[in-house]
Amino acid sequence: MLLIVKDSYEAMSREAARVVAERMRRKPNLVLGLATGGTPLGLYKELIRMHKEEGLSFAKVTTFNLDEYIGLPRTHDQSYFYFMRENLFKHIDIDPRYIHVPDGMAPEIDAHCEWYESEITRYGGIDVQILGIGANGHIAFNEPGSSLGSRTRIKTLTEQTVKDNARFFKNMAEVPKTAITMGIGTIMEAKEVILLANKTNKAEAIRAAIEGPMTAMVPASIIQMHRKAYVMVDKEAASKLTHTFTG
Ligand code: F6R
User: Fold this and answer.
1) Which pLDDT band holds residue 161 (cuts at 50, 70, 90)?
2) CA end-to-end span of the chain, whole Å?
3) pLDDT by residue (tens digit) across 42-69?
4) Least crowded by CB within 10 Å, which of 53, 95, 165, 226?
5) Ligand 1: which of 34, 66, 202 to mutate, judged by most atoms within 8 Å of the beta carbon?
6) Is there a domain that residue 243 lies in?
7) What sign has the CA pseudo-torsion 40, 46, 51, 54?
8) Per-residue pLDDT tens for 163-180?
9) How far is it, in rounded angstroms, from Cα 234 to Cα 197?
10) If you ran DSSP here, which 8-state letter would residue 158 be given?
11) How many Cα atoms occupy the beta-carbon half-sphere of 57 within 13 Å?
């Protein structure tokens, strides 16, 4: 595992974009795993800039997103598909046929999850997977206690997550209670993973993931077992690490 501590969120985002762009230049048909949430927004902004100013092309890139809410159509402004379109896809030259986001409206969710896994395999596996981390150590929608060998499947959101999401919806009834998520086993098969974290509220999760024991209670701690993992953080998110020089 390579820990990279940067002075700022912007510097962390630029470093992640530099690695992704380097992999894309080496392999134009890269298979890229993507995350939603606030953390990767700086990375996406930098990739868009590189596309516009430096000719970085996504034309042959295939993407697989980590997760999606069940019951939200792709046109819903809280769906992860919508998020990805607004924050990355519509600004770059990606071929829409190569975009994969789990379909929260699929009539047979279990069959869809199996299909999603087989699509990842059909494209040769994920080359680089971008990850964020929850304050409780979750990755994708794999909350504490998720099997470390899990595959793409339905997960019931924790009460806390449902409550946290409520502010984005008109009323509680509209807030999704379930989601489709890649499993921890699926994520671990990516050839490289880049876990990003910034701000003090992620410091404890980063400490537990990197320096704590590997445990299903901190799903991100599985990264200790990955053969090629980068953990890119800002100073605040690194502030609770004790075994690492962060000056
Ligand atoms: C999103 C995802 C989540 C987030 C995590 C951190 O696709 O898989 O695990 O990465 O909840 O979210 P932010 O970046 O908003 O702090």
Assistant:
1) confident
2) 19
3) 999 999 999 999 999 999 999 999 999 9
4) 53
5) 66
6) no
7) negative
8) 888 899 998 889 999 999
9) 7
10) P
11) 7
Closest CA to 190 of 128, 233, 141: 128
pTM beyond 0.90: yes
Q: Whose CA is nearest to atom 12 of ligand 1?
A: 37
Confirm whether 208 is domain-assigned.
yes
Average pLDDT over residues 190-218: 98
**In the chain, how many domains are there?**
1
Which residue in the block uniquely carries the two structure tokens 């953390």? 39
SS3 label, residue 125 = coil
- Say how many Å lie between the CA of residue 146 and the centre of ligand 1: 16
Is 105 a domain residue? yes
Helix 41-54 / helix 9-26 crossing angle, nearest 10 deg? 50
Q: Is 143 a catalytic residue?
A: yes
How far, in Å, CA of 241 to CA of 173, rounded?
Answer: 40
| Helix (DSSP H) and strand (DSSP E) numbers for the chain | 7, 10
Q: By residue range, what is the domain housing residue 86?
A: 2-234
Classified as helix, coil or strand, 231 is strand
Q: Whose CA is nearest to atom 2 of ligand 1?
A: 140
Copy the structure tokens of residue 3. 């820990």
245 occurs within a structural domain: no
AA letter at 12: M
The radius of gyration of the chain's CA atoms, rounded to the nearest angstrom, is 17
Reply yes or no on whether 67 is catalytic. Answer: yes
